[in-house]
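ugh ok fine here u go
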Amino acid sequence: MLAQPLVTVIRAGRIAYAAGLQLQQQLSQQNKKDPTVFRNYIILLEHDPVYTIGIRTKGYTAKEEERLRNLGAEFYRTNRGGLITFHGPGQLVAYPIIHLRQFKPSMRWYVDALERTVIETCFQMGIANATTTEDTGIWVGDKKICAIGVHGSRYVTTHGIGLNCSTDLKWFEHIVPCGIEGKGVTSLTEHLGRRVCVTEASGAFLASFSKVFQCRIEEQKTEENAQESN
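structure:
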């Protein structure tokens, strides 16, 4: 029986979007030609307030960008799939940097696995009716609780998911989330009627990721930590 792939968790805390993007790029620029030596990661973090748009988004003018920036958020155009969304404090952002040849070499399978991971996470947190629809992301009723937007290059994934935990949902009032008219957004906190922090949700997410992706999870051990303990 083959050993399950190993995925290392990096807890980056709360950082700017540019710093998260740089970290993704650093980790993804490994030897993609040899999946047996590629090291898989999941970056867990919260972003400072930022609006991001994907490769399918067209027509966002400089004036519209300025309007969103004036709210106190950054604005970035990215190479992920999907349309506009918001990331900010209280939202669990997970960026899996994995080589799909260690799992299953299919982006369609990967997106489906991410969806199942978030649905399982919601179930573990006490939400039994989280599901997918014809629209992207994970939904509870007619409200989106998690955005999904990914990118793949030579079987290596970047970008990922944004699960609303205790997010200030007012940030979403200034956009049409993921380009879907007439739908709302929700969070674990709003739906469960108690405050759910990112740390609590991250535990359920990692357990669900390990279950769905059939992989082993380990926390990052850095040289700095080793030096500090000596």
